[in-house]
Amino acid sequence: MGNLLKKEHKKQSERKVDRPVVDKRPKQLLNMRIIFVIGGPGSGKSTQCDLISKDYGLLHVSTGQLLRDEIVANTERGTKVKDMTARGELVSILPLLLLLRERERERDAASLFHCA
Description:
The chain contains six helices and no strands.
């Protein structure tokens, strides 16, 4: 039985479908370099990102800091984020993406996010 499954898997993997490769990303994103640093609380992500950004002239954007700033500013979104975290919930992706988009448009980030 095991050999039969292996043979069927081999047959499926040998099938090739010719499909055109289409890159649907905006052209300005094609040359953009984005580095994600992931780790648990207190693992040194911000420390490492600060060093990397200074050494390579990159912009360090911390989603955690963006959320904390939003809470301190006492915005409607900040209140929702504060309530979510108080309940022990993870913040959904939409507020994070909106904050990142807003951060991208700020003056000091504009030249670093822009890729020609």
